[in-house]
From TrEMBL:
GO terms for molecular function: metal ion binding; protein tyrosine phosphatase activity; sn-glycerol 3-phosphatase activity. GO terms for biological process: glycerol biosynthetic process; glycerophospholipid metabolic process. Transmembrane segments: none annotated. Keywords: Carbohydrate metabolism, Hydrolase, Magnesium, Metal-binding. It comes from the Eukaryota. Belongs to the HAD-like hydrolase superfamily. CbbY/CbbZ/Gph/YieH family. This is Glycerol-3-phosphate phosphatase. Homodimer. Divalent metal ions. Mg(2+) is the most effective. The active site is at residues 27, 29. Its cofactor is Mg(2+).
Length: 305
């Protein structure tokens, strides 16, 4: 807006930015909660934004929950939210296959029950959820039985990921199936600085085996925003994206021409953003937010006025 990037959002500037937007998109983990704990003040921020007439949406790359499960979790934490406000990659991936790919046929799914449910909700059948134990020898694996109705391989978070699943995905992809991934986050951050491997690791394994690149639907791909905008008529120039990660949340906002706000309760720091800024490299400027706050609770004084 002012031409100065990565500015602390406070006082009059904060009121000005809030007045300049009608819609606010929030990432979830590291922004409104950490694990099962709400960020202090986050519920009040969301509820006041809505009370002040703003449209509020949640865009998360996590594919392990349905919209309904997210809305239930948010309600428990005191957020005034319905499932229509939630855009997780389980749902967005199903929408992508339906509306963009116009998929005719089944999905071979490396993913969760939540993804299975979201696919079924848009009329797409799947095979593959759950464990797939290995038997036989390599010659058997190369001739593993495949469902002829499968026309797409979809990779999301799959706690049962295994060698046989990797093999089966490769065999389907060798036949020319569509190849779609939920997201490329390589780590799932946990409390206390810990982390576990994320969907991006599984996706890279499948890409390496199949020697093909997947199309991903999650942030920073614009499809997440398109999904929200097509249903709720969000105006880019009057929309703010709030997130804790520069390479997914902030880059999505930049890719879509939204205002961007980094919150420091999650993955990235102001120093990370300034490094991108100072690099002078054009391809890194999309990861520099317009503004930052220590926590979204910093918005409270302006919202209470
Ligand atoms: Mg996050």
């Amino acid at each position: 807006m002012s031409g100065t990037k990565c500015t602390r959002l406070t006082g009059a500037l904060m009121r000005q930015v809030l007045e300049s937007v009608d819609s606010v998109l929030f990432d979830c983990d590291g922004v409104i909660w950490r694990g099962d704990q709400a960020i202090p003040g986050a519920a009040e921020v969301i509820n006041l934004l809505k009370k002040n007439g703003k449209k509020v949406f949640f865009v998360t790359n996590n594919s392990s929950k349905t919209r309904k499960l997210y809305a239930d979790k948010m309600s428990l934490l005191g957020f005034n939210v319905t499932e229509d406000d939630v855009f997780g990659t389980a749902y967005c991936c199903a929408m992508y296959l339906r509306t963009v790919c116009k998929l005719q046929g089944k999905v071979y799914l490396l993913g969760s029950n939540a993804m299975k449910q979201e696919l079924e909700a848009v009329g797409i059948q799947q095979t593959g959820v759950g464990p797939d134990p290995i038997t036989g020898k390599p010659a058997d694996w190369a001739n593993v039985s495949l469902d002829p109705e499968v026309k797409a391989v979809v990779v999301g978070f799959d706690e049962h990921f295994s060698y046989m699943k990797l093999n089966r995905a490769m065999q389907y992809l060798n036949q020319g199936c569509l190849f779609v991934g939920t997201n490329r986050d390589t780590r799932l951050p946990l409390e206390g600085g810990k982390a576990v491997p994320g969907t991006g690791c599984l996706l890279q394994a499948v890409e390496a085996a199949a020697q093909r690149q997947a199309q991903t639907v999650g942030k920073p791909n614009q499809f997440m925003f398109d999904c929200v905008a097509s249903q709720f008529g969000v105006e880019r120039e009057r929309c703010l994206m709030v997130g804790d990660r520069l390479d997914t949340d902030i880059l999505l906002g930049s890719n879509c021409g939204l205002k961007t706000l980094l919150t420091l309760t999650g993955v990235n720091t102001v120093a990370d953003a300034q490094e991108h800024l100072k690099s002078g490299r054009p391809e890194r400027q999309g990861m520099v937010p317009d503004y930052y706050v220590d926590s979204i609770a910093d918005l409270l004084p302006a919202l209470r006025e």
